[in-house]
Amino acid sequence: MSELLGFRAVEAGYGEARVLHGIDLAVGENERVAILGRNGVGKSTVVNTFLGVARLRAGEVRFRGAPQRSLQHFTAARAGVAVVLQGRHIIPNLTVRENLLLGAAVRRPGAWNLEGVFELFPVLRERADTPGTALSGGQQQMLAIGRALMANPALLVLDEPSEGLAPVIVDELAVVLRRLADGGTGLLLIEQNFGLVRRVAERYYALSKGQIVDQGRLADLSLAKLKEHVAV
Amino acid sequence: MLLQTLNGLVYGGLLYILAVGLVLIFGLRRVVNFAHGSLFMVGAYVGYAIATHFGNFWLGLVVSVVVLAVLGVFLDAVVFRPLQREDPIVTVLVTFGILLVLEDAVRTIWGKDFLSLKPPAALAGTVQILGESFPTYRLFVIALAAAVAIGLSLWLRMSRIGLFVRASSVDRTTTAILGVNTDRVSVLVVAAAGVSGRVSAPVLALSPCMGRLILIDSFIVVVVGGLGSFSGAFFAALIIGQLHNFGVVYLPWAATMIPFLLMVGILIWRPSGFAGQHV
Ligand SMILES: Nc1ncnc2c1ncn2[C@@H]1O[C@H](COP(=O)(O)OP(=O)(O)OP(=O)(O)O)[C@@H](O)[C@H]1O
Ligand SMILES: [Mg+2]
Fold first, then answer.
1. Alpha-carbon distance B36 to A5, whole Å?
2. Is-contact B198 B36, C-beta < 8 A?
3. Is A209 a pocket residue for ligand 1 (Cβ < 6 Å)?
4. Which is nearest to B240 in space by CA: B221, B215, B266?
5. Exposed/middle/buried for B112, CB within 10 Å: 0-12, 13-18, 19+?
6. Contact B60, B120 (CB under 8 A)
7. Is B272 inside any structural domain?
8. DSSP-based three-state secondary structure for A84
9. What is the ipTM of this complex?
10. Closest partner residue to A94 among B167, B176, B277, by Cβ?
11. Which of A32, A64, A30 lies closest to A50 in space, CA to CA?
12. What total number of domains does chain B contain?
């Protein structure tokens, strides 16, 4: 199994404040990994660090085994790592179609294209020419996922995709994520919704106060322990 | 009457092009570029110098376009990029400083009097339209301004780079995370903003404060049209272009005030401009 994303002894934060204290993690090709943790423990900061939004103070971030000397916002995308940011970040002055095309700014060879995304999420086809932010929350989440797929990523990172979605929509999301994984896309799922985590991930890291306090296979994690890691 | 309308169109077209430049630079770099108008002025003077020295109007136009592109790339790298994380008031002071420096430089080299450039021989005549005679050169400028305004809109709407430009001008971070090198997009935009301003207006009458005057009207276009809306800016520019020209002819004492009054009126009626989203 070759590694797509790796952290070694990562210390990171914003300005002078440190949020992550010595994080080690690795996600391999076609793996399904979850990061669990309560509000404010630094889950999004993990993402922000490899995106060059938070500041890497010590340690190392690797894409496909290669240590990165300078992390620009676009470095991850160019290494085949696409991110669905927490809060979706749909570009408001672009239509649904244009948001999707923007996702293809850097594209690896692969099967995903506009047609494929429209088949996965038919509602996006119906509303292709409306402004992206005119969609409902669930539809915007589909748009954000579709946009990330347009790059044909080797690894898809999703930061709390279930946030604000109705339970039936979360069920649909689980099905979609499983389909993507079956199609060969690696997943890094940051979640507090334990139902979604159990249906999608095979391995997990549990984060608390900027440190990894537990990790292992999800099959070996009791429901009580899982709930404790994500207790809301 | 027809003449006035057409002159208003030229001015409106130019305002639109400068306003789009301002909006894009603000979106990409969070910089309110007070030097934008003076770039346009520097371009006009460089064009004048080359045209009179070599006796070739077209050479002047081409050289000044190249000079502006280079100046744009330089400004973006040396000024806007380092400033983008600063307080807005710092960027306003710095770009205003650049405006003063450029105006002074031009005044020192060419003097403060109006200079005038002869149109090229091919465009020196007049054309009859609906019984009125019309300078060929004016028609040429109208066609050019229209072509640049339409070209700019199409480029933003239809091209891949145009999509990146629109996206980065509202959400730079997300656009970059999707893989776009937004610094490169910014350089391109700053250069294109200067160049399109220059190409669309091979003006014949030059003065060191021409950049400042047109900049004020361009800001009004941005505000009236709604910050960030290209179609809003388009209509605002057409209206202000007409008001400006009719004002100059029929109410000269009030000409400079009319656009301001319009702006105040619009802001009272719709605080975010006619096509602006509420923020
Ligand atoms: N852009 C930022 N600038 C400064 N501090 C930040 C920024 N983003 C997050 N923080 C701080 O970093 C800490 C960790 O935040 P982070 O967003 O990583 O948590 P999280 O685990 O993703 O929480 P949530 O579940 O609420 O999304 C918090 O104390 C937060 O206030
Ligand atoms: Mg978060």
1. 43
2. no
3. no
4. B221
5. exposed
6. no
7. no
8. strand
9. 0.92
10. B167
11. A64
12. 1
Q: Express each pLDDT in A99-147 by its tens digit.
A: 999 999 999 998 899 999 999 999 999 999 999 999 999 999 999 999 9
How far is the C-alpha of B100 from the C-alpha of B98, rounded, in Å?
A: 5
- Tell me if A231 CB under 6 Å of ligand 1: no
Asked if the Cβ–Cβ distance from B177 to A72 is below 8 Å, we say no
User: pLDDT tens-digit profile of A160-215?
Assistant: 999 988 899 899 999 999 999 999 999 999 999 999 999 999 999 999 999 999 99
User: What is the Cα–Cα distance from B7 to B41, expressed in whole angstroms?
Assistant: 19
**Domain assignment present for B251:** no
Ligand 2 centroid–CA A14 distance in Å is 14
User: Does residue A89 belong to the interface with chain B, where contact is any CB pair within 8 Å?
Assistant: yes
* A77, A93, A98 member nearest B228 (Cβ): A93
Nearest to B230 by CA among B27, B9, B1: B27
Tell me, yes or no, whether A11 lies in a domain: no
**Is residue A39 lining ligand 1, measured as CB closer than 6 Å?**
yes
- A13 to chain B nearest CA, in Å? 17
Length of chain A: 232
The enclosing domain of A195 has a CATH number of 3.40.50.300
Helix (H, G, I), strand (E, B) or coil at A210: coil
How far, CA to CA in Å, does B135 sit from each of A71, B3, B57, B181?
57, 10, 17, 45
